[in-house]
Write a structure and sequence with these properties.
Helix content is 34%, strand content 22%. The protein is an alpha+beta fold. The strands form three sheets. It has a four-stranded antiparallel sheet with strand order 3-4-9-8, with no helix packed on it. Strands 5-6-7 form a three-stranded antiparallel sheet, with no helix packed on it. Strands 1-2 form a two-stranded antiparallel ribbon. Helix 6 packs antiparallel against helix 7. The protein has seven helices and nine strands; from the N terminus they run E-E-H-H-H-H-E-E-E-E-E-E-E-H-H-H.
């Protein structure tokens, strides 16, 4: 018959092998390894992991311009790749961390020949002490700081579309709104947007058409790429353009028959 011992069943007279300790197991592995042929130096080198700080590793990737690297590998001139200059992102010299919870997100803007005007609604801002409403101007940046109720509210654009004259740019504090008048460095120059993102996108797109993945693309493919990166308002016009282009191709195909 069968007998039970600690929930492990065995036949009478049958002995289980002794469990080996970890020390014994390591000694056996060491002995077998010493008796076998050593690995070639090249093979052992492949198994060694190069230790690198994670932050440093990803930091290097962030600094890598992939388009420049690929163009250089192909024997091209990497300076052709458009990128934002290092001075185009402004440092406002603020040591304290700006809490994203208190970022001012409601604003509007317009422009004239001489000024770009920013309108930022903020309830009761006109009743605050003058020192609690500050604006810092930089050649291509602006920072608004409003201290209210012990909180630092803020609005920042570190990459304006074009350069401004910091000496003649001003702020106007009204009852429930702050108006910032940015004096254009070049009067009469039209800004494509408040920031330089749209201009930089157009430069990169032109590079892609001349040297990158859009080189040799059809009109339909170019419109599709524009549609992918467009705003809702811009997509309305692009849909009409794609429709006209499609109808023209269909008409040409019918005429060729």
């Amino acid at each position: 018959g069968w007998t039970a011992c600690h929930r492990v069943y065995s036949r009478p007279g049958e002995e289980r092998p002794q469990k080996k300790s970890r020390t014994d197991a390591r000694q056996e592995v060491g002995a077998s390894s010493s008796s076998s042929q050593p690995l070639p130096a090249a093979d052992t080198a492949k198994t060694v992991r190069v230790c690198k700080d994670v932050g440093q590793y990803y930091g290097e990737w962030d600094q890598l311009n992939v388009e420049k690297a690929l163009l250089e590998e192909e024997g091209g001139d990497p300076s052709l790749v458009p990128e934002r200059a290092s001075g185009d992102i402004q440092d406002f010299g603020i040591r304290e961390v700006l809490d994203v919870t208190y970022k001012i997100t409601r604003f509007s803007w317009d422009q004239s020949d001489k000024f770009v005007s920013l309108y930022l609604p903020f309830d009761g801002v006109g009743a605050l002490p003058a020192e609690d409403v500050q604006v810092i101007f930089r050649p291509v940046g602006v920072l608004l700081l409003i201290r209210s109720g012990g909180k630092q509210h803020w609005y920042k654009v570190p990459n304006l579309c074009k350069a401004i004259d910091t000496n003649t740019s001003v702020k106007k504090v009204k009852a429930d709104q702050v108006v910032i008048k940015l004096r254009k460095e070049t009067a009469g120059e039209q800004w494509s947007d408040l920031t330089d993102e749209k201009d930089l996108y157009q430069k990169r797109r032109q590079f892609r058409i001349q040297h990158g993945d859009l080189k040799g693309a059809t009109t339909e493919e170019l419109l599709a790429d524009m549609y992918k990166h467009a705003t809702d308002e811009e997509r309305v016009g692009l849909r009409d353009a794609m429709k006209v282009n499609r109808e023209k191709r269909e008409a040409d195909a019918r005429a060729a028959k």
